[in-house]
Structures are given as C-alpha cells and as structure tokens.
C-alpha cells in the first residue's frame, strides 16, 4: 500500500516538474504577436471608408434648383456637396428671394429639388401656417373662412382694398361698409395685416 502511494506521489511530482520546465522554455521563445480583434476592425473600417471615398469621387448627382434664383435648372454636383453651392451654380439669389427659408448647409443627393421662395411666397406660407388671414392679400374664399364674413362682406373688403389701398392695422377693417365693432370683435384674433 505504501509503495502504491509512493509511486502515485512520484508520478504527480514528475509530471508537475516536466510541465513547469516546458512552460519556462516556451516563455523564453519569441512568440509571434497577434493583432487584437479591435485592430482588425479598425483596419477593415479604414479600408471600407477609403473604398467609399474612391467610389464617391467617381459619382455625380443631378440637382434641380428653381424659384428665386438667377438661372434655374438642373446642375451636376458631387454627392455630399452643400446646397449653397447648388444655389451659386444657379447664379445666386434674385433680389426678391427669401434665402433664410432654405437650409443651405444641407448636403445634396441625386434627384434633389431645391426651391427658393420669394419674400412674398415665404410670407404667404408663414401666414398659412399661423392660420391667420391677411386681410390685405386674402382671396374671396379665404376671407369667407372668417367668422361672420360671407361672400358679400368678402367682396366689400376686396373692393375697399382696391379703392383705398392696403389696411394699415387690423382695426381698419371696420372702415369697410357692413363691418362694425361687433363683427370686428368676432374676427380680430383671426386676421393680420402686412
């Protein structure tokens, strides 16, 4: 029994020593360094970006620029160029343009349509968004949307505008025949002048 125990201990001791010597020998050898997974991913990403840049350099896109620009038309550009360049290519803004209504910093893409509104168009769009009726520019149908204003009063407002000129303040609408203070009070929060 003692011999068996002794032999088992000797086998374990010998195996342990052999493994220790083997591992020490391996650590002295120059092991090749492996690149981390992150390094491979970064290199792969850089290769992909360079390939995309090469492809983008060869690509062109067509952008339609119209509205309040000097020379409306279709212009050839590179994808990612900015809208301000497209407007420059179209000869720039006209005098009646509303450049603040166009985000000129956006990048272009194929098939993009850039519409530059006039100051008047921008004002009308702004009024429409606000839900208010401009009594100086509203059509008969728009005037009829006001509370208590039918076709007859709408025609009277238009006739007054044409004869006397634009209203200077919203209260001036009471100068129109058939529109008194009570009628004005019904519509005063729905109208504007400009």
* Whole-angstrom Rg: 40 Å
Level-2 CATH architecture of the domain at 131-192: Orthogonal Bundle
Biggest sheet: strands, sense, closure? 3 strands, mixed
Strand order of the largest sheet: 2-1-3
Look at the structure and give the mean pLDDT: 82
Helix count, DSSP H or I runs of 4 or more residues: 7
Beta strand count = 5
Give the amount of beta strand, in percent: 5-15%
Q: Class by helix and strand content? A: mainly alpha
Please report the first level of CATH classification, the CATH class of the domain at 131-192.
Answer: Mainly Alpha
Low-confidence stretches: none
Feature tags:
single chain; 194 residues; mainly alpha; DNA polymerase, domain 1; 7 helices; 48% helix
Provide a descriptive summary of the structure in words.
The protein has seven helices and five strands. It has about 190 residues and is mostly helical. Among the domains are: about 60-115; about 130-190, DNA polymerase, domain 1. Strand 1 and strand 2 form a beta hairpin. It starts with a helix and ends with a strand.
In short:
The chain has helices spanning 2-28, 37-58, 83-89, 119-130, 140-143, 151-164, 181-187; strands at residues 61-67, 73-77, 113-116, 133-134, 191-192. The protein has 194 residues and is mainly alpha-helical.
Give the helices and strands, then pairings.
Blueprint: H1 2-28, H2 37-58, E1 61-67, E2 73-77, H3 83-89, E3 113-116, H4 119-130, E4 133-134, H5 140-143, H6 151-164, H7 181-187, E5 191-192
Parallel strand pairs: 1-3, 4-5
Antiparallel strand pairs: 1-2
């Amino acid at each position: 029994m003692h011999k068996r125990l002794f032999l088992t201990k000797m086998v374990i001791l010998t195996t342990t020593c052999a493994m220790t010597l083997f591992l020490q020998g391996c650590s002295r050898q120059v092991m090749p360094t492996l690149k981390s997974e992150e390094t491979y991913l970064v290199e792969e990403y850089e290769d992909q970006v360079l390939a995309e840049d090469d492809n983008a350099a060869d690509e062109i896109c067509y952008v339609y620029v119209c509205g309040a620009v000097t020379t409306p038309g279709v212009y050839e550009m590179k994808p990612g160029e900015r809208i301000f360049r497209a407007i420059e290519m179209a000869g720039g803004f006209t005098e009646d343009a509303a450049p603040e209504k166009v985000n000129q910093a956006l990048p272009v893409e194929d098939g993009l349509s850039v519409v530059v509104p006039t100051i008047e168009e921008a004002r009308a769009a702004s009024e429409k968004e606000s839900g208010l009726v401009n009594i100086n520019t509203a059509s008969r149908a728009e005037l009829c949307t006001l509370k208590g204003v039918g076709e007859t009063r709408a025609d009277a407002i238009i006739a007054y505008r044409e004869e006397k000129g634009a209203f200077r303040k919203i209260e001036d609408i009471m100068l129109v025949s058939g529109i008194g203070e009570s009628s004005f009070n019904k519509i005063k929060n729905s109208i504007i002048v400009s």
